[in-house]
Amino acid sequence: YVWGADGPDSYDCSGLVLAAWAKAGVSLPHNAAQQRRVTKTVSRGDLRPGDLVFYYSDLHHVGMYVGGGWVVHASQAGVPVKMKKVDDGPIHSFGRPG
């Protein structure tokens, strides 16, 4: 994790999502709250791998759903990109890019 980074050697949370979706040809802004605004709202029951999970009321964190109740995310300085359970944090909403 490096704040403001979008790879390939370091990422912040929205930079990781931006870089992953760029590989699929989808352009996203480099800010979790802005990513929430440009993605289609989906329900928890409709989550698919690649959907975004937004955390906290101020939308300051985002992870990418990978299936089975897990997300991949970049969390904080000094901590590598890793997996966590989707419910490990206060969920704000879910979004689908593209």
Task: Name the features.
single chain; 98 residues; alpha+beta; 6-stranded antiparallel beta sheet; 6 strands; 28% strand; globular
Q: How would you summarize this macromolecular structure in one to three sentences?
A:
It contains two helices and six strands. The protein has 98 residues and is of the alpha+beta class.
What does this structure look like?
By secondary structure, the chain is α+β, with helices and mostly antiparallel strands. Helix content is 18%, strand content 28%. It is built from two helices and six strands. The longest helix has 11 residues, at 13-23. The radius of gyration is 12 Å and the shape is globular.
H and E order: HHEEEEEE
Low-confidence stretches: none
Structure summary, number of beta strands: 6
Rg, Cα atoms, Å:
12 Å
Kindly state the mean pLDDT as a whole number? 96
Number of helices: 2
Strand order of the largest sheet: 1-6-2-3-4-5
Largest sheet: number of strands, sense, barrel closure? 6 strands, antiparallel
Percent range of helical residues? 10-25%
Shape: globular
Q: How many angstroms separate the termini?
A: 25 Å
Approximate strand percentage: 25-35%
